[in-house]
């Protein structure tokens, strides 16, 4: 490795540390104001797709907010079910993985998706962050099975989503076949730190709906989104040409009726993209 290459890698590492620190600072500022910033109240499911079937038995999960839950290995998470949730009726599951440095409460405040998701019949889950590693994948992988054991979930409406580390987890757990059965029906990965070269080391999972949100000039992961979209397009045999939605996102039709959506975003890495406000529209 040349001296110039070493200096470039050092600069990139310092920049990554600064950006991760900025995300953590945002979470800290939220915690400072937590005494007067209250989480949204759980909403009633209003969508006609709120329930799609029944569970064999009524499960123990409750309507409303269940906070400070833990996986077997101690990872904290929270569950927010619609206020009119019924324990024997199937609902969608939106698993929101956190950005770096955020606990589950910070993640909920950062994403601002609870109200919309509940109204469309989704049980929303927020997990706490731990530094990305093989151990992090194992621990984060425990959350969904815990929820499925307690809340009545439609296996065909399971969504993994997140920003930054959360987008990386959503993708990584899916392509590394670590996602539990049932696997996610849809993933939404925003500003994920996974390159095309990384994905080429993995096996293509069973077809699913994929949305990639990424700024091509992202402060931390420039160009990663385009590479991920190219890999997914090959993986799922997506057709040309693309269609452009009113949001500006492009959509390609893929094998088994699945779609690949690509949203080019302008926001810096620390911001959850504004176009993500359409996420629940994409799911149903």
Protein described:
- The chain has 284 residues and is an alpha/beta fold.
- Among the domains are: 48-160, Rossmann fold (3-Layer(aba) Sandwich); 191-269, no CATH class.
- 32% of the residues lie in helices and 21% in strands.
- It is built from 9 helices and 10 strands.
- The protein has helices at 3-32, 104-111, 114-119, 134-140, 143-150, 165-175, 196-199, 224-235, 279-283, and strands at residues 64-70, 76-81, 91-97, 122-127, 153-163, 186-190, 209-214, 243-244, 250-253, 259-264.
- The chain has a 10-stranded mixed sheet with strand order 1-2-4-3-5-6-7-10-9-8, sandwiched between helices.
- A hairpin with a 5-residue loop joins strand 9 (250-253) and strand 10 (259-264).
- Helix 1 (3-32) packs across helix 2 (104-111).
- The longest helix has 30 residues, at 3-32.
